[in-house]
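Checklist before submission:
- one chain only
- standard amino acids only
- sequence pasted in full

Submission:
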Amino acid sequence: MVEATAKALEQVPHRITNPELIPTKRYYDEAFFQLEKEKLWPHMWQMACRLEEIPDVGDYTVYTILEHSVLMLHTQSGVKAFKNACRHRGVRLAHGPGHCGTEGLVCPFHGWRWNADGENTFVFGKQIFSEELLDRAEIDLAPVRVEFWAGCAFINFDDGAPSLHEFLGPVADRMDARHADKLKMDWWCGTVLPTNWKLAMEAFQEGYHTMQTHPQLFHVSPNATKSLGRRSDGQSLNENLNARQTVDMSVDFMAKLSEGMDGMVHKTEVAVLEKLRDMDVPEDSAIAGQMFYGRAYQDVTEDARARGAPIFDLMQVAQAQEFHAVEFMFPHYFLLPMLGAMSSYRIRPLTAETCLFEIWSLVIRPEGEVYETPTEPTMLPYNSPEFPEIPRQDYYNLPLQQLGLHDIEHMRLSKTSEGMLSNYQRLIDGYIAGLDREMLTKAGQIVNSGFEAPVLDIGF
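Returned file contents:
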């Protein structure tokens, strides 16, 4: 088994032989991109839509991945997924969000129709077709496998793939504890980046870049006292803070994160945290920091519940569940928790050197609160000033990095701070090599290990 695995991996072009060195051709080589299209994406669980996009029977939206299009349709028996193609001659039936209405889905070419359950209801001139060509299973919309988690519908073109929950592994339990299924959209934006899809993800898999790329955040981070936060003279940036300064910096950090992400910490949560600046604290700054977060968890929970939001107990979850500021669900989906709200990313390849990048701001809303839920992203240029500050700073760097990778052979990774990049890239090699499905599933559960994971043994 070990020998067969090694032999299969040897056939992967530009494969990773040293987990701390990533061959740069993986980010622009057309042949490697074609292998991803053939060997990776058809077997992946992909976040296709948020269920709140299609709340009523007859509502639909469209998920596209490369040349494939999937119709996400709210039927009488729940949300189902279908190939977005007429069963007659393949015309795309839908191009965005909509509702079936009384006519259902109508092919614009020859007028074939389907109802809100994906069943064919009309074939013009049935008598001109051979009877066997119009068998019900052949003319109803072609189903695509779909499963549900965290308020989203996930699709998979591979009927033999493991279940979604098995595919995700422990990350699902961590996010379930944070009521990810109750999150609702505040806003949703998208852009086309002149960047390979993998490169677009990697800025959000490590915090090493924060000092240079996001200085406004780094300089108010209590964690800047750690080893990465030292000045050129060796002194920590935030050494010798007194207890009151520690509390103020903690509030400043959360407020700056809220402003920079426009939602990872929700405005309602910042309002609660601002009231803690005057809380009584002991002189010991370390104890003051612990007390601040204890009060923050308690007060944010109480405030949300008082407003009718079905939020989890922040303190209980903080004690019971490992926390990561970024949770990655291979191959392309992110949730970024902090308190009760989250940001979310979804990245999809377009070409070898371009991708579609979407951002959501998500919050646990009070039950029954009236809100106009987005049904499609607001599309912006990648350099638009309308993006929040933090992604805007990342979007500045990524196109420059894409260009620069053509002039170096490898990216060099920190084995402790940038291991997430290596872990998921080596899993891609496993899929391209066609390794054993069970081995790949176990490796995927390890890869979904959370922000700033070190280089890990994924089993091959």
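Reviewer check: Residues 285-306 form the longest helix (22 residues).
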